[in-house]
Design goal:
It is built from 9 helices and 11 strands. The protein is α/β, with parallel strands linked by helices. The chain has 2 domains: 157 residues, Nitrogenase molybdenum iron protein domain (Rossmann fold, 3-Layer(aba) Sandwich); 99 residues, 3-Layer(aba) Sandwich (Rossmann fold). The strands form 3 sheets. Strands 1-5-4-2-3 form a 5-stranded mixed sheet, covered by helices on one side. A 4-stranded parallel sheet has the order 9-8-10-11. A two-stranded antiparallel ribbon has the order 6-7. Strand 10, helix 8 and strand 11 form a beta-alpha-beta unit.
Length: 264
């Protein structure tokens, strides 16, 4: 487990944990139970690619012994140095360490590692290790919670495989490519409209539509943070049904199941 840490100062709250996004808060709550108070840096409805923390959040972070980050999303890259400077005594946890990166487009690794059952278990183990380091007397409690969480994730994984096993839908459209790891786990083709954060040209939109039709695509996943005119253009051109999803939701299991059901 990779982290940077110093001795705690007297102003730290030993039970306070910061995470980048709501899914990590869910994982942390599942493992930490009533032993930690978990706060999210990027609030509901915020964009983790462009979010800027408030002065109050930076102050709270400096009082926090543990900060759990996804690993390499936009906000974390942009603010990495300033976060460390603001919280020199905080242990920073890269929850995606050990996860093999997958490209969502050429030479661009997808940072949305949490949208995978396999990866969720890796992330949960990192969180558990950090909690045991902070509160070693509660290690048994954290291990028990981890085992329960893993069992729950495995059930979710089995349910998704069952839904997708006989499905004729093997490809899906999505504006912002957040489901690269989901697609990899279940042998699906993710067709992103946007690449590297750039708006597609008219020619690229046409190519995307042609490719989607060629792969008998029936679904386009839409996130409200990225929905725009191009979303409608591609959906109408490819003749697909739009399905709203929220990979940033605290309800991680529900979102994973919702995506699978749409692809049945």
């Amino acid at each position: 487990m990779a982290f940077s840490a110093c001795k705690q100062n007297n102003t730290q709250d030993s039970s306070l944990v910061f995470v980048t996004i709501e899914p990590l808060k869910y994982f942390a709550n599942e493992i930490g139970g009533d032993k930690f108070k978990v706060e999210t840096m990027v609030p509901k409805g915020g964009n983790p690619e462009t979010y800027e923390p408030t002065a109050k959040q930076m102050m709270r972070l400096s009082q926090c012994p543990i900060f759990i980050k996804v690993g390499n999303i936009g906000f974390e890259r942009t603010w990495n140095e300033r976060l460390h400077q603001s919280a020199p005594n905080t242990m920073f946890i890269d929850s995606s360490e050990g996860i093999s990166p997958i490209e969502s487009s050429e030479h661009v690794d997808d940072p949305h590692t949490w949208m995978s059952c396999d990866n969720a278990i890796v992330i949960a183990r990192h969180i558990c290790n950090a909690f045991k380091q902070q509160k070693p007397a509660d290690s048994t409690y954290f291990n028990q919670n981890l085992n329960r969480f893993i069992a729950k994730v495995n059930l979710t994984d089995q349910a998704i495989k069952g839904m997708l096993y006989k499905s004729n839908t093997k490809a899906f459209l999505i504006y912002h490519p957040t489901l690269t790891y989901f697609a990899h786990n279940y042998q699906l083709i993710q067709i992103p409209v946007e690449e590297e954060g750039r708006e597609p040209s008219a020619a690229q939109l046409k190519q995307t539509i042609v490719f989607a039709k060629k792969n008998n695509t029936k679904i386009m996943f839409v996130q409200k943070e990225f929905a725009n005119r191009n979303t409608q253009v591609v959906a109408e051109g490819a003749g697909v049904k739009q399905v709203d999803i929220n990979p940033l939701s605290y309800q991680w299991h529900d979102e994973m199941m919702k995506i699978a059901k749409a692809l049945q």
